[in-house]
Amino acid sequence: MGKAKQKKKRKLFGCLFASVFFIAAIGIGAFYLVSSMFTENELDKLLNGRLSGIANNEIPAEYMPIYQEAADEYEIPWELLAAVHRVETRFSTMDPMISPAGAEGPMQFMPCTWFGWSHPTCEGNGAGAIPNEELTDPDLIAEHGGYGMDVRDKGVADPWNHEDAIFAAARYLSSNGADDGDIEEALFAYNRADWYVEEVISFVDVYNNGYEVIENNEKP
Prior knowledge:
The protein has 220 residues and is mainly alpha-helical. The protein has 2 domains: 2-37; 58-218, Orthogonal Bundle (Lysozyme). 55% of the residues lie in helices and 3% in strands. A two-stranded parallel sheet has the order 1-2.
Protein backbone atom coordinates (compact mmCIF):
# COMPACT_ATOMS: atom_id res chain seq x y z
CA MET A 1 0.00 0.00 0.00
CA GLY A 2 2.86 2.38 0.88
CA LYS A 3 4.74 1.67 -2.35
CA ALA A 4 1.60 2.30 -4.40
CA LYS A 5 1.15 5.73 -2.78
CA GLN A 6 4.78 6.59 -3.48
CA LYS A 7 4.38 5.63 -7.12
CA LYS A 8 1.26 7.80 -7.39
CA LYS A 9 3.09 10.75 -5.80
CA ARG A 10 6.04 10.36 -8.16
CA LYS A 11 3.67 10.13 -11.11
CA LEU A 12 1.76 13.24 -9.97
CA PHE A 13 4.99 15.17 -9.43
CA GLY A 14 6.21 14.12 -12.86
CA CYS A 15 2.97 15.33 -14.47
CA LEU A 16 3.14 18.67 -12.66
CA PHE A 17 6.77 19.17 -13.66
CA ALA A 18 5.99 18.35 -17.28
CA SER A 19 3.06 20.78 -17.27
CA VAL A 20 5.14 23.62 -15.85
CA PHE A 21 7.92 22.92 -18.34
CA PHE A 22 5.41 22.85 -21.21
CA ILE A 23 3.85 26.19 -20.19
CA ALA A 24 7.27 27.80 -19.78
CA ALA A 25 8.33 26.54 -23.20
CA ILE A 26 5.20 27.99 -24.78
CA GLY A 27 5.86 31.37 -23.08
CA ILE A 28 9.46 31.51 -24.26
CA GLY A 29 8.46 30.48 -27.75
CA ALA A 30 5.76 33.14 -27.88
CA PHE A 31 8.22 35.81 -26.71
CA TYR A 32 10.71 34.95 -29.45
CA LEU A 33 7.92 34.80 -32.01
CA VAL A 34 6.72 38.29 -31.05
CA SER A 35 10.32 39.55 -30.94
CA SER A 36 10.94 38.37 -34.48
CA MET A 37 7.94 40.35 -35.73
CA PHE A 38 9.30 43.75 -34.62
CA THR A 39 12.43 45.81 -35.08
CA GLU A 40 14.48 46.56 -31.96
CA ASN A 41 13.01 50.07 -31.73
CA GLU A 42 9.46 48.81 -32.21
CA LEU A 43 9.98 46.16 -29.54
CA ASP A 44 11.28 48.85 -27.17
CA LYS A 45 8.05 50.76 -27.71
CA LEU A 46 5.99 47.63 -27.11
CA LEU A 47 7.79 46.63 -23.91
CA ASN A 48 8.88 49.97 -22.47
CA GLY A 49 6.69 52.59 -24.10
CA ARG A 50 4.04 52.29 -21.38
CA LEU A 51 1.30 52.44 -23.99
CA SER A 52 2.48 55.89 -25.12
CA GLY A 53 4.02 54.53 -28.30
CA ILE A 54 7.27 56.37 -27.47
CA ALA A 55 10.46 54.36 -27.01
CA ASN A 56 12.75 55.05 -24.09
CA ASN A 57 15.26 57.03 -26.16
CA GLU A 58 12.67 59.08 -28.09
CA ILE A 59 11.67 62.68 -27.40
CA PRO A 60 8.86 64.52 -29.24
CA ALA A 61 10.28 67.36 -31.35
CA GLU A 62 7.69 69.92 -30.27
CA TYR A 63 9.04 70.04 -26.70
CA MET A 64 12.77 70.21 -27.43
CA PRO A 65 12.97 74.01 -27.88
CA ILE A 66 11.04 74.52 -24.64
CA TYR A 67 13.31 72.18 -22.65
CA GLN A 68 16.40 73.88 -24.02
CA GLU A 69 15.20 77.44 -23.50
CA ALA A 70 14.01 76.74 -19.95
CA ALA A 71 17.20 74.83 -19.14
CA ASP A 72 19.35 77.73 -20.34
CA GLU A 73 17.29 80.18 -18.32
CA TYR A 74 17.66 78.23 -15.07
CA GLU A 75 21.07 76.65 -15.69
CA ILE A 76 20.03 73.01 -15.46
CA PRO A 77 20.37 70.13 -17.96
CA TRP A 78 17.60 70.09 -20.56
CA GLU A 79 17.70 66.28 -20.35
CA LEU A 80 16.43 66.59 -16.79
CA LEU A 81 13.33 68.46 -17.92
CA ALA A 82 12.69 65.93 -20.68
CA ALA A 83 13.04 63.06 -18.21
CA VAL A 84 10.65 64.65 -15.70
CA HIS A 85 8.11 65.23 -18.47
CA ARG A 86 8.52 61.63 -19.61
CA VAL A 87 8.02 60.14 -16.15
CA GLU A 88 5.25 62.51 -15.05
CA THR A 89 2.89 62.26 -18.04
CA ARG A 90 4.70 60.25 -20.75
CA PHE A 91 5.25 63.46 -22.72
CA SER A 92 1.66 64.58 -22.14
CA THR A 93 0.12 61.39 -23.52
CA MET A 94 -1.37 60.42 -20.15
CA ASP A 95 -5.13 60.76 -20.09
CA PRO A 96 -6.29 62.42 -17.95
CA MET A 97 -3.32 64.52 -16.84
CA ILE A 98 -4.65 64.75 -13.30
CA SER A 99 -3.22 62.47 -10.63
CA PRO A 100 -5.29 60.89 -7.84
CA ALA A 101 -3.53 63.29 -5.44
CA GLY A 102 -4.58 66.32 -7.48
CA ALA A 103 -1.41 67.14 -9.44
CA GLU A 104 -2.26 68.49 -12.86
CA GLY A 105 -0.92 69.40 -16.25
CA PRO A 106 2.03 68.11 -18.28
CA MET A 107 4.52 68.51 -15.43
CA GLN A 108 2.07 67.51 -12.67
CA PHE A 109 2.14 70.51 -10.37
CA MET A 110 0.12 70.44 -7.19
CA PRO A 111 -2.10 73.57 -7.17
CA CYS A 112 -0.56 74.91 -3.96
CA THR A 113 2.97 74.54 -5.32
CA TRP A 114 1.90 76.35 -8.48
CA PHE A 115 0.03 79.15 -6.71
CA GLY A 116 1.83 79.37 -3.39
CA TRP A 117 1.24 77.67 -0.06
CA SER A 118 0.05 80.81 1.69
CA HIS A 119 -3.38 80.41 0.07
CA PRO A 120 -5.87 79.78 2.90
CA THR A 121 -6.97 76.41 1.41
CA CYS A 122 -3.43 75.02 1.15
CA GLU A 123 -2.62 72.25 3.58
CA GLY A 124 -1.90 68.53 3.54
CA ASN A 125 -0.68 67.33 0.14
CA GLY A 126 -1.21 70.69 -1.55
CA ALA A 127 -4.35 70.01 -3.58
CA GLY A 128 -6.05 73.05 -2.07
CA ALA A 129 -9.29 74.51 -3.37
CA ILE A 130 -7.97 77.41 -5.39
CA PRO A 131 -10.39 78.91 -7.94
CA ASN A 132 -8.98 78.75 -11.46
CA GLU A 133 -9.03 82.52 -11.90
CA GLU A 134 -6.74 82.80 -8.86
CA LEU A 135 -4.62 79.75 -9.72
CA THR A 136 -3.64 81.25 -13.07
CA ASP A 137 -3.23 84.89 -12.01
CA PRO A 138 0.49 85.82 -12.34
CA ASP A 139 0.22 88.69 -9.86
CA LEU A 140 -1.43 86.57 -7.18
CA ILE A 141 1.08 83.78 -7.76
CA ALA A 142 3.95 86.23 -7.22
CA GLU A 143 2.24 87.58 -4.11
CA HIS A 144 1.84 84.10 -2.63
CA GLY A 145 5.31 82.86 -3.60
CA GLY A 146 4.23 80.17 -6.05
CA TYR A 147 6.24 78.61 -8.86
CA GLY A 148 3.63 79.15 -11.58
CA MET A 149 4.83 81.15 -14.58
CA ASP A 150 3.42 83.19 -17.43
CA VAL A 151 6.28 82.70 -19.88
CA ARG A 152 5.01 84.80 -22.80
CA ASP A 153 3.30 87.55 -20.78
CA LYS A 154 -0.15 86.51 -21.97
CA GLY A 155 -1.75 87.42 -18.65
CA VAL A 156 -2.30 83.81 -17.56
CA ALA A 157 0.05 81.39 -15.78
CA ASP A 158 -1.42 78.08 -16.87
CA PRO A 159 -0.22 74.74 -15.40
CA TRP A 160 -1.72 73.07 -18.50
CA ASN A 161 0.32 75.18 -20.91
CA HIS A 162 3.52 73.39 -21.91
CA GLU A 163 5.75 76.45 -21.88
CA ASP A 164 4.43 77.69 -18.54
CA ALA A 165 4.62 74.24 -16.94
CA ILE A 166 8.08 73.30 -18.24
CA PHE A 167 9.58 76.68 -17.29
CA ALA A 168 7.97 76.40 -13.85
CA ALA A 169 9.46 72.91 -13.44
CA ALA A 170 12.87 74.28 -14.42
CA ARG A 171 12.50 77.06 -11.88
CA TYR A 172 11.45 74.62 -9.16
CA LEU A 173 14.27 72.15 -9.85
CA SER A 174 16.83 74.96 -10.03
CA SER A 175 15.61 76.45 -6.75
CA ASN A 176 16.00 73.05 -5.08
CA GLY A 177 19.60 72.48 -6.09
CA ALA A 178 19.64 71.24 -9.69
CA ASP A 179 21.54 74.34 -10.85
CA ASP A 180 24.34 73.34 -8.44
CA GLY A 181 24.35 69.74 -9.61
CA ASP A 182 22.22 68.37 -6.76
CA ILE A 183 19.93 66.53 -9.16
CA GLU A 184 18.75 63.82 -6.77
CA GLU A 185 17.93 66.35 -4.05
CA ALA A 186 15.98 68.51 -6.51
CA LEU A 187 14.03 65.52 -7.85
CA PHE A 188 13.18 64.31 -4.35
CA ALA A 189 11.78 67.77 -3.60
CA TYR A 190 9.71 67.54 -6.79
CA ASN A 191 8.30 64.12 -5.86
CA ARG A 192 9.24 62.64 -2.51
CA ALA A 193 9.79 59.06 -3.58
CA ASP A 194 13.07 57.21 -4.12
CA TRP A 195 11.63 55.21 -7.03
CA TYR A 196 10.72 58.50 -8.76
CA VAL A 197 14.23 59.90 -8.41
CA GLU A 198 15.73 56.68 -9.77
CA GLU A 199 13.35 56.52 -12.73
CA VAL A 200 13.91 60.12 -13.79
CA ILE A 201 17.68 59.73 -13.54
CA SER A 202 17.48 56.54 -15.61
CA PHE A 203 15.88 58.55 -18.44
CA VAL A 204 18.46 61.33 -18.05
CA ASP A 205 21.14 58.66 -18.55
CA VAL A 206 19.34 57.30 -21.62
CA TYR A 207 19.17 60.76 -23.22
CA ASN A 208 22.81 61.48 -22.39
CA ASN A 209 23.79 58.25 -24.15
CA GLY A 210 21.86 59.11 -27.29
CA TYR A 211 18.32 60.14 -28.08
CA GLU A 212 16.07 60.32 -31.12
CA VAL A 213 13.79 63.26 -31.82
CA ILE A 214 10.46 62.16 -33.26
CA GLU A 215 7.99 64.32 -35.13
CA ASN A 216 4.44 64.81 -33.92
CA ASN A 217 3.00 62.57 -36.62
CA GLU A 218 5.14 59.67 -35.36
CA LYS A 219 3.21 59.64 -32.09
CA PRO A 220 -0.07 57.71 -31.81
